[in-house]
Write a structure and sequence with these properties.
The complex is a heterodimer of chains A (266) and B (263). Chain A has 266 residues and is mainly α. Chain A contains 12 helices and no strands. The chains are: A mainly alpha (266), B mainly alpha (263). At the A-B interface, helix 2, helix 6, helix 7, helix 9 and helix 10 of A face helix 1, helix 2, helix 5, helix 6 and helix 9 of B.
């Protein structure tokens, strides 16, 4: 009993260490960065130091500016993202179910999707002025693509046998019963993938939009740091963008695993 | 019943004559709505000029050589940066795929940097390299490295496990050259191509955006210039050009990829 417990603890310890061990290079690089910026004179002017990052973090957190900027960005992303879902799902359903609309409007949508979302930035500023408008527009444009494509392919790939069985059972296509019992379960997995991918696109778009035109947000932190040569602020902005991007992806992956798992049972 | 449905579905339906015209409906509707809005003065012509004005602006920009010149400038930067990013990403990816100890550590570093959109590097690039082509090339390289490293790094697992088992049964694992040629290269090359395609798309956008923030010339700089002086037609022309060049870049890489992975 005791030995079994000891063995268990030992194996847990071993798995803990094998989990941590691959981080040696990352930790080593950070340590190297800290040593070089403190020991070599002038190195700090080249790229900022961990000390500056720490100072910026403390001042931004204590003044509440960090939280405000994060919330400003998240709010813009949420609004643009919801617009993208509304348009992307509607167009995906329309073009996926009807050959005619696909032929008529497929080329237009493909053409718009071919333009990198970020290229719209100057036009967005012209159209929506300064403030939240351009950023929301850019997020919507960026997030639209993956949502549309995934809904569209999801609809076109509803297994033929499901369509046939529902026809046999007298369920008309586009009836409520068909939508909720045949279409939605089939489209859901690819829709969730589209939602996750477009969340990543939206996050990159908000950074670009706020970098070029905004007075708040995580991208604005980067822009301010760049203009005032505050390395700490730039580094803090990068860390915050990376961490929030990771959390967004993690959240959507969890949703995908939870809700799309029935797909494997098909 | 079921078979009957599939049978009718598979039968060729004679195409009506107007089928090609259907494809023109969407673009015509968009142009019509756009032109209509502009003609009726619903939207400010300063912000949304009519399609005719944009069309003639494109002709002017191309004829004067300004747009082709800017496209060539950015393509030049792209052609310098892309190979650097691909080579660096490929080296990292190969280490991840083929060295168990170092590869796991490198994978963690790549994972950490992967969370950051390439565009977030722009401020650091500007502080380091100032204004001009260098920061744009730097951001492009960073944006390309990550997807290439991730894709190539995952390529080893694309080799079917049965192939490993079979080759070790046959005693082939000792012949490294053969293993590399037959297994690892065929697994890594398609991953390299798809990683390069992703990286090229992201990198092209990053190159243009850096130009907007810190360019001295090129498409990104030019489009920001026209925005500041409210020349919407020129802005729209450049938005379209950026998209078109991006599509052409992807087409070229896809063709090259097909040639490279032809076996």
């Amino acid at each position: 009993m005791v030995t079994a417990q000891a063995e268990k603890i030992r194996s847990e310890r071993r798995s803990f260490w094998s989990g941590v061990r691959p981080f040696w290079l990352l930790a080593g690089l950070i340590l190297l960065w800290a040593i070089v910026t403190t020991a070599v004179p002038g190195a700090q002017k080249m790229g900022g130091s961990p000390a500056e990052l720490w100072e910026a973090t403390v001042s931004q957190v204590s003044s509440g500016a960090l939280l405000q900027n994060i919330l400003a960005s998240l709010q813009r992303v949420a609004i643009g993202y919801l617009i993208a879902i509304a348009i992307g799902v509607t167009l995906g359903l329309l073009l996926g179910t009807s050959r005619l609309t696909e032929r008529m409007f497929g080329s237009v949508i493909d053409g718009i999707r071919a333009i990198p979302p970020i290229a719209w930035t100057p036009l967005a500023i012209l159209w929506f002025g300064v403030g939240d408008g351009p950023a929301v527009f850019l997020v919507a444009v960026a997030a639209f693509g993956p949502i549309f494509v995934n809904v569209y392919t999801g609809v076109t790939r509803v297994a033929a046998r499901y369509r046939q069985v529902s026809l046999v059972l007298g369920i008309r296509p586009l009836s409520w019963l068909y939508l909720t019992n045949v279409l939605l379960p089939s489209v859901l997995p690819s829709l969730l993938t589209g939602l996750r991918l477009s969340a990543g696109y939206a996050w990159a778009a908000i950074v670009a939009a706020e970098l070029i035109s905004a007075s708040s947000g995580v991208g604005f932190m980067l822009a301010t740091g760049q203009r005032n040569l505050q390395f700490g602020l730039v580094l803090l902005g990068m860390v915050v963008i990376a961490v929030l991007g990771y959390l967004l992806n993690f959240l959507f992956l969890a949703i995908e695993r939870r809700w799309a798992s029935h797909d494997t049972a098909q | 019943m079921v078979t009957e449905i599939t049978a009718t579905r598979r039968r060729r339906v004679p195409r009506p004559r107007w089928s090609l015209a259907v494809y023109a409906v969407g673009p015509l509707v968009v142009l019509g709505v756009w032109g209509g809005l502009a003609a009726m003065g619903v939207v400010n012509a300063l912000l949304l000029p009519s399609p005719v004005v944009v069309g003639s602006t494109i002709v002017d920009l191309v004829a004067s050589g300004e747009m082709p010149g800017n496209i060539l400038l950015d393509l030049g930067r792209f052609v310098i940066g892309l190979p650097i990013g691909v080579v660096l990403g490929c080296v990292l990816g190969l280490v991840i795929a083929h060295s168990p100890e170092l590869g796991a550590a490198v994978a963690k570093v790549v994972d950490a940097f992967r969370q950051l959109p390439g565009l977030a590097w722009i401020p650091l690039a500007v502080i380091w390299f100032g204004i001009g082509a260098l920061p744009a090339i730097f951001v492009l390289v960073v944006a390309v490295i990550i997807p290439v490293a991730v894709n190539v790094g995952a390529s080893r697992s694309q080799v079917p496990p049965n192939l490993w088992l079979a080759s070790s049964t046959l005693g082939l694992t000792q012949r490294r050259g053969l293993m590399v040629r037959q297994f690892l290269v065929p697994a890594a090359l398609p991953a390299l191509v798809s990683g390069t395609r992703i990286g090229a798309a992201v990198g092209w956008a990053a190159l243009i955006t850096t130009g907007m923030v810190a360019g001295a010339n090129g498409m990104g700089y030019q489009i920001e210039y026209y925005r500041r002086i409210l020349d919407s037609a020129e802005v729209i022309a450049y938005v379209l050009a950026i998209g078109l060049v991006g599509v052409l870049i992807d087409a070229v890489i896809r063709v090259l990829g097909k040639v490279v992975t032809k076996w």
